[in-house]
Amino acid sequence: MAEEENQAQYFSRDFSWEELRDKVERNPSLRYHLSPSPSSPHPGDAIADAWRSFHSRHSSGKFFKERRYLLKEFPELIDCDSPICVLEVGCGNGSTALPILRAKPNVFVFACDCSREALERAEEMVSSSNLASVKHQFRTFVHDFSVNRFPDWLLCSSCQNSVRIQSHNKAEIEENGLIWLSDLSFFGAECCIGGIDFVTMIFTLSAVPLQKMPYVIAECISVLKPGGLLLFRDYGLYDMTMLRFPPDQKVGFREYMRSDGTLSYFFSLDSVRSLFLGAGFVELELEYCCVISVNHRMNKKMHRVWVHGKFQKPVHRSLGLSTR
Questions:
Q1: In the prediction, which pLDDT does 271 show?
Q2: Which of 216, 228, 237, 285 has a CB 3.0–4.6 Å from the CB of 224, allowing a cystine?
């Protein structure tokens, strides 16, 4: 019962985003957050290295909590009876993948991250979760999606077989993950443009340099099946975390760099809509999630703002329009 009450509180809309916006914009001490700032290019390798160091410092995985709320926010992941393939982009220690694996027996989750150490924690998290029967339904691979294309073996089964036939190097096949195809035999998928039913981007895009975001989203739509969904959740404009950044950590418009070198961008609904519609997605849901989180130890209320979105790859998207 306590868990249900906590979930109910978590999902409630505790305050008006418009009222928070007005309060912030009237506060002279917060005015620097509103002013445009020239964005400076961020070397992709440096950002990826910063996240690798971050995951190394938090190797215990205790920094992240299992995101059980996702199944309530994105019920599509478990509502359908048919088998599905999910790609978790920027999976960290597996806090998104694990609740999906718990809830749906006929799911296969691919999970990528730029940090090998984070992926090792994700594998350990799944292994120690009393879900031994689903180990073969969870596969990780190291991938910096901000600069590299997703591998071809994420495409449909026919395309995967074509790639396999063209490769004569067994080591290359194993490195690329094509050896995992035998685990997908129960899906019985027919040939299509893309091979993934759902892409999840949970607090991932905000960590990518702003100028690289369109590339990342275009890559995501390229591996989705026609009609497939991208499920999005990330930091929203005027979130408490944004307002805590000092002026010297502002490196662009709504973009900040932490002391450890990692980035954080804060999205408005319009900025999210522009990015995803520009890549060819259709908007299904897009809204602010406004939650008051209470720090009981310090007796403080924190106004958290996240952006919740669901975007669909058009069913009629043709081969001629594919980024591949």
A1: 97
A2: 228
